[in-house]
Automatic annotation (TrEMBL):
One Pfam match: TetR_N
Protein name: AcrR family transcriptional regulator
Keywords from the named record: DNA-binding
Annotated DNA-binding residue span(s): 29-48
All copies of domain HTH tetR-type, residue ranges: 7-66
Amino acid sequence: MARPKSENKRDAIVAAAIEVIAAQGLSAPTATIANEAGIANGSLFIYFPTKTDLLNAVYVALKVEMSAAALDGLNVEQDVRQQLFLTWSNWLRWAATFPKKRRALALLGVSHEISPQSRAAGYQAMAGAMEVLERCRSDGPMRDSEIGFVASLVNALAEATIDFLVIDPKNADQHRIAGFEAMWRMLA
């Protein structure tokens, strides 16, 4: 009879994969990930039958974590601009606080290894943030544009803003606010 899988060990593998992917990219060997997790390489495959399965699990885990961080403290009683500002600020804080997770997610986001099901799960994880975005653009200049395109524009603006938060931390608040104002003008 097979031993039950340990959730702690699975989490350790995902955390190790984030570290290794951020440092070495998506071609990093599973042996390196297993070593970072403190397990035998063969044990990794008990939890994730293929490297692709692992990459997909990491992608979804990061999307869920990023979304939860972005929506932390969201008050639907506030006006939509305040909701968007909170979501924006939380998202930037998460990305600046966890640069390895940001890098791993960026690499996974453009990988052909990520399945349509995982992309859909990632999109679903971001549903709350997307609802705020939808409400913001409903009467603005981007109202007739595909939401995926709008989200890509917002993401590009966020990435540029995050880069400046990281390279110029003493002016982080100014960059965060300027990035938000640019996004707001684009949406509303």
